[in-house]
Structure formats: structure tokens, C-alpha cells
Amino acid sequence: xxxxxxxxxxxxxxxxxxxxxxxxxxxxxxxxxxxxxxxxxxxxxxxxxxxxxxxxxxxxxxxxxxxxxxxxxxxxxxxxxxxxxxxxxxxxxxxxxxxxxxxxxxxxxxxxxxxxxxxxxxxxxxxxxxxxxxxxxxxxxxxxxxxxxxxxxxxxxxxxxxxxxxxxxxxxxxxxxxxxxxxxxxxxxxxxxxxxxxxxxxxxxxxxxxxxxxxxxxxxxxxxxxxxxxxxxxxxxxxxxxxxxxxxx
Length: 249
Fold this sequence. Notes:
The protein folds into two domains: about 1-105 and about 230-240, no CATH class; about 105-225, Alpha-Beta Plaits (2-Layer Sandwich). It is of the alpha+beta class. Helices cover about 35% and strands about 20% of the residues. The longest helix is centred in the middle third of the chain and has 35 residues, at about 140-175.
């Protein structure tokens, strides 16, 4: 099988001298002026161990030093180099558009937290402002009443937080080339966003982050990056996810 790190332009450019996962040599699979950077995969198990994750990331960052890169998610595997080449050619037009969109840009990640987050939903203080059940409510119904009241309080807090987050997000998005907001996370707690920012505007973008944080003291903005633009890869992700690929355990 073949492990895929990234898709990039400038196929004639030499590959980084470093090795890939498990010290396998990096190789190219080329379709016209687009190249996939790959290494051999001999059946060893992908475990998301820290050293494997960092090796994957190091290869991508080395590629970004001298070309535009569409990073693939850790664990992207295809049956053969021939299959990689077929997918490159099938998605060629869309890949070129993606490459042009991310050229010269990086991803900045953002997490939005409020002061109340991190407290358990079972904490009685979370629903402290809820009204009491009507007089005469049966004892067996008090628990259900309290649960409904608590759930309503939590929903009100989430709606209030989301309103604050969207205001902060829109301000930040106006200073980015592209952006994405995840306002329906699986854990129903953390709200996150990603911003595609030009390399020469990273410092000014972080200054805007500070301005937004000062304007919204009720929010904590946790900024990470710069990263490879994982959140803004469309064609490459679609091409590989629709194939007979495998992923890390």
C-alpha cells in the first residue's frame, strides 16, 4: 500500500531529504503539474503515536517551505501508487484550484471558551437561576422539573455564548482569506474555528485576535498555529475519502 502525505505543485522540485513514516523514503506520484508525496506502507499498524504524528507533520511542513501544499490527514492510505496517480488525474482541475487558493497561506486555529465552561452539567450552580417548580408538584416530579429547568438554562447559556462567538468570529473572518466555524461540536461544549491567513499577515491577524479578545472579555480565545491548511483542503480530501483507503486506528 501507499501512504499519502500531501498533494503539491512544482513536481520537478526535489523532495525533502528527510524520511517518511518508519524511515521509508519519500517518493513522487505525478500527474501533469501536480504531485502527490508518498512513501511505501508494508502493513505496519498506524497507531497515532506521537512520533508518527510528528513525522507526518514534519514532512508536510518541509514541503511547504518551497511549494504550495494540500496536506492529507494522518493515516491516508491508498492501495497503490497507480491508484494515487489515477486519483490525481481524476481530480486534477479541482486540485489545481485548491492549490491556488492556499498558496502562500497557512491555517490559524481558534477555540472559543467562556468562563463557565469546564464546569460539569451536574453542578447545581449551573441551573441556579432556574425558577422553582409550582407549589403542590408531586415529589416524584421534582427531579424531572429540575432536569428540564437545568436543560433550559444550559440551552440559554449556549445560545448566549454562540451569539458572542459569532460576533468575534465575523470580525476575525474579515481579516482572513477564508474561514470555517464549527458551532455544533460533538461535545456540545467547545466551539472552534479555522482561518486561512496569508503568511505575511500572521502578525497583523494575531493583533486582531488580541483586539477581539479585549472587546469580548467574557470569551477566552485560544489561538494556535500557524498550521498547514488542513481545514481548507477540499478536492484532495474528497478524492482520497472516496477510494479504498485506510486510516489510523
